Each structure stands twice: as C-alpha cells, then as structure tokens.
Amino acid sequence: MDAITIKDIARALNLSTSTVSRALRDSYEINPETKRLVVEYAERFNYRPNPIALSLKENRSRVIGVVVPQIANNYFSQAINGIDAIAYSRGYQVIIFQSHESYERELLTVQQAVARKVDGLLISLSGGTSDVSHLRDLQERKLPIVLFDRVSKELDSFCVTADNFTGAFAATEHLIQSGRRRIAHLAIPSYISITQERLAGYRAALEKYGVPYDENLIRYSEFSQNDVEPVVNDLLNQSPDAFFAAGDRLALGCLATLKKRGIAIPETVSLIGFTNTPVADLLAPPMSTVEQPALDIGQVAAEQLINLIEGKQKLTQPGMIRMPTRMIVRESSQPVGVSKPV
C-alpha cells in the first residue's frame, strides 16, 4: 500500500495542503478541531513525513555524521547509544563511520559524511590524528562540528569529554594509599588529548604524596596485544609495584602479559584500568578501573551539535564540557594483606 501524502489528506478532508501541513506541525494558526481531524486521519492511514521532501524544503538533511575510532570498543558503542537516543528525540538520523585509529581513514570517512550532506559532525579523533586541518576547513565552510572524548586544542569547537585528570588522579591516589610507590603508567599515543590529561592527573597525585616522578615508568603503546606485551615487559625491568593503564584495552593487554610472566596480581603488582569494560568484574582477578560516563558524553555531545545546527547555540569561543568519572575498586588493586571481597 502506497504511503499517503499531505495532498491525500487535504483532498480527503477538503482542506488546503498548507492547512494540513500547519496542522501536522501543531501550528497555533490552525484551530483545535481542524488539528484533531488532520492528526486522526494521518494516524489512521499511517502518514509519515517524506524525509527527502523535508530536507529540500528546510535545506537540511536532518542527518548527523558520527566518526569514532572503533565501534567494537565498548566505550564508543555506549557513546553512540547516547548520541542516537538524542538524535532520534530531536528528529535526526545518525550515520556512523569508523576511522580504525587511522588518520587516512578519518580523512576518508569525514569526506564521505560531507558527501552525504550531513547537517553536522560528531567526531572522536583517531589514534593517528595529530593534524586537524581537515576539520578546520569544514568549520570555515560553516559545518557544525563537536568533538567528544578525544579532542584537540587546535580546533575552535565545542568539546565533550570525561574528567580525565580527576579520574587519573583518583586511580593513582588509590594505588599510593594502598602502599604502592613504583607506579608504572601505560598510556596511549602521546599526542592524543586524553593521554596528556591522564598523565597530568597521575603526576599530580604523585606530587601530592611526595612520590618522585620517574620518566622510566612511563610508556606509550598502541592498542593491540602484540603492541602492549613488549611495552609491559620493558616496564617490568623498572621493578614497578603497580600499573595504571590509561585505557582498559591497554589494561587487558597488561593483565595478559603479567599472567604470562607468572606475576601475581595484586600480591606482587597492582593493576588499574580506565573506562570500565563490561568484563572488568569477570576477570581473574576482577579489575579495578575508572568509569567514564560514555552514554552521558554521547548525549551531551549530540545535544550540543543539534543546538549548533538549529542555531540555538552560537560558537563564540571554544567550550569544554568535562563529565565526572568514578573510581571502581576491585581485587586487582587491593592492598597486600587485605582480604578479598566476598
């Protein structure tokens, strides 16, 4: 059965198409009885607005592009859920692209999003992205852009991210208070914004408790197990008594390497991650981690972008929204001599 149109409704009710259109938009210009007749008829015959016609009329696609490093990453899948929920409630559709941690793939996916006439772009920078000139060019062409999670100071944009500094401070403080002093920090590539923020939180906690900062305990790694294992083995030469990993994927690689080496956790070495992967409490031992509010970050980022698109918000200067994190202590960072939780 063909979908009915505004013209069909107008013909059936002996109304003008403009009256039907305004009634469906709940315009104050149309009296309540006419609105009721139009809405009831539209619902009875399952009327749905034509998105192509709407986009031509409004000069908008009502579609937003979302670029993430990897959908399979639980953090980004949760953020996408938040983005999609807000987009749907505001009448927008979402197209999702993956950069696979590649700058070249990011360039390509951004070009694809623009080619599809998206109204705006939500993007978390890839692990390989240090140059954001491709996004600056789009901003100069008046495309609304909001960065989330991984952001750049080189771009005048609204940014939504976790409070990485406070989260890293809390993780490091917890390790120090549990008696650790040789705390290794395993970080993602150094030019990514969240890397610097988490490193700063780590250093601030050391300074607060008078623990010397040792650059020999800092290493940067890509995300795969093959990348993490040699980095952890190298750090073990520095005799650490704890590892603070700046991401749960790094922490999982660290856990696997420590187990492979037969190093007891937490008896010999403590371990804390960052993100709170869904399997963290199922690991052996259950892994302590800093939880990021991924869903909330996605929702806030989507609201910011749609407000920019609809002109409800003006970007007079870059704005940074930092969402609170939460420290979750599990067995992997329990002080030696403390009984395991039941």
Automatic annotation (TrEMBL):
Residues 4-58 form the HTH lacI-type domain. Signal peptide: none annotated. SUPFAM superfamilies: lambda repressor-like DNA-binding domains, Periplasmic binding protein-like I. InterPro entries: HTH_LacI, Lambda_DNA-bd_dom_sf, Peripla_BP/Lac1_sug-bd_dom, Peripla_BP_I. Keywords: DNA-binding, Transcription, Transcription regulation. It comes from Spirosoma telluris. This is LacI family transcriptional regulator. Pfam families: LacI (PF00356), Peripla_BP_1 (PF00532). GO terms for molecular function: DNA-binding transcription factor activity; transcription cis-regulatory region binding.
